[in-house]
UniProtKB/TrEMBL annotation:
Homology family: Belongs to the NAD(P)-dependent epimerase/dehydratase family.
Organism: Tanacetum coccineum
PANTHER family noted in UniProt: DTDP-D-GLUCOSE 4,6-DEHYDRATASE-RELATED
Biased composition (Low complexity): 18-29
Disordered: annotated segments: 1-30
Compositional bias (Polar residues): 1-14
NAD-dependent epimerase/dehydratase domain mapped to chain residues: 34-322
InterPro entries associated with the record: Epimerase_deHydtase, NAD(P)-bd_dom_sf
The protein's name: UDP-sulfoquinovose synthase, chloroplastic
Length: 424
């Protein structure tokens, strides 16, 4: 498997698998042991710390390939991040809480089996996928890697649950990008339609816009099928664009810092705009700037995951939650960053650049997102104070900005066949 890391660190075997289940009711009581696949990544690291602080026993499973991507493409997080071992040691020294660490690739089923039988999870949070649409569109090699890693890795997780932890609840990170930008309201996973006088509730149609987003669609179909065929319990979190770098836990020490990606491959629009403003570069709006998406704070990501774990799906149930709190167009984000910059004495300009993606630049967008609110989500909305905080982080670390990474470097239309490095 490309980029596979086989070494493992196995710690602290626990109680019997499915220890959080209530077989008499078919429901699952509050899980106590949570495996976070991809726990060294942006969402995974913040989630691992949050769950550990809340009293869950946490195990991180990661092959550390996200760090390898930075080395391969000449990229780096705006915020300095230390090794996963140093992160965990610092967390232990601050909280006296252990986080188990299993280093290996979920596409290696032997490794994954060892991790499952050793840790015996009640819930699995699956962040362990290549998560960048631009990365998947660089060339054939990375398109193949994205689909192979994401789809086959998730299949292995499903088989591991079936074989070793049949009552385990899978909380899988999906993406709002599975839906595309249809000219009707986006429901949460399912839509009820009437056709030729007959009515049925069906999975919402998917219109993925990259090889990455397509991999997520395949994941959703595979998970839904195994819920029906094997009785797996699963929650698919179709997440919007995440912003922010700080949670209550990552603020405890600089060795707990989370990633802040701002480049054209892994950086999201809001992160990129904040860094561009901090270094005096015009904000780069792709095309007309009417592209609208759902957004949420990283603090709400960890809240949503915790809510899904604490309120597990039933056996055989495939739930879909749309995980975001607000909707913005790219132009609206640029305007918000411009105003926040003015408050900090930063003059911010905006330019339109050719859109490297194949997407609608002006479109209808209205997505439903009520299920997590009903479970108790208390959103952190994109206020002036939060934008000030993001800009201040960008200003604090602006000496670490590589200005060669600011402009988009990957084109949907010019995807290559040969593996290439984005920047020298």
């Amino acid at each position: 498997m490309l980029f596979s890391i086989r070494a493992t660190t196995l710690q602290q075997p626990g109680t019997k698998a499915g220890s959080g289940s209530d077989e008499s009711s078919g429901q699952q009581s509050r899980p106590t042991r949570v495996m976070v696949i991809g726990g060294d990544g942006y969402c995974g690291w913040a989630t691992s710390l949050h769950l550990s602080k809340k009293g869950y026993e946490v195990a991180i499973v990661d092959n550390l390939v996200r760090r390898h991507f930075d080395d391969q493409l000449g990229l780096d997080s705006l915020t300095p991040i230390v090794s996963i071992h140093d992160r965990i040691r610092r967390w232990r020294s601050l909280t006296e809480k252990d986080i188990n660490l299993y280093i290996g690739d979920v596409c290696d089923f032997e490794f994954l089996s060892e991790a499952f039988t050793s840790f015996k999870p009640d819930a699995v949070v699956h962040f362990g996928e290549q998560r960048s649409a631009p990365f998947s569109m660089i060339d054939r090699s990375r398109a193949v890697y994205t689909q192979q890693n994401n789809v086959l890795g998730t299949l292995n997780v499903l088989f591991a649950i079936k074989e070793y932890a049949e009552d385990c609840h899978l909380v899988k990170l999906g993406t709002m990008g599975e839906y595309g930008t249809p000219n009707i309201d986006i429901e949460e996973g399912y839509i009820t339609i009437t056709h030729n006088g007959r009515t049925d509730t069906l999975p919402y149609p998917k219109q993925a816009s990259s090889f990455y987003h397509l991999s997520k669609v395949h994941d959703s179909n595979n998970i839904a099928f195994t819920c029906k065929a094997w009785g797996i319990r699963a929650t698919d979190l179709n997440q919007g664009v995440v912003y922010g770098v700080r949670t209550a836990e990552t603020e405890m020490h600089d060795e707990l810092y989370n990633r802040f990606d701002y480049d054209g491959v892994f950086g999201t629009a809001l992160n990129r705009f904040c860094v561009q403003a901090a270094v005096g570069h015009p904000l780069t709006v792709y095309g007309k700037g009417g592209q609208t998406r759902g957004y949420l704070d990283i603090r709400d990501t960890v809240q949503c995951v915790e809510l899904a774990i604490a309120n597990p799906a039933k056996r055989g149930e495939f739930r879909v939650f749309n995980q975001f709190t607000e909707q913005f167009s790219v132009n609206q984000l640029a305007s918000l960053v411009t105003k926040a910059g003015e408050k900090l004495g930063i003059e911010v300009q905006t330019i339109s650049v050719p859109n490297p993606r194949v997407e609608a630049e002006e479109h209808y967008y209205n997505a439903k997102h009520s299920k997590l609110i009903e479970l108790g989500l208390e959103p952190h909305l994109l206020s002036d104070s939060l934008l000030d905080s993001l800009l201040n982080v960008a200003v604090q670390f602006k000496d670490r900005v590589d200005t060669k990474q600011i402009m988009p470097s990957v084109s949907w239309r010019k995807i290559g066949a040969k593996p290439k490095t984005v920047s020298a």
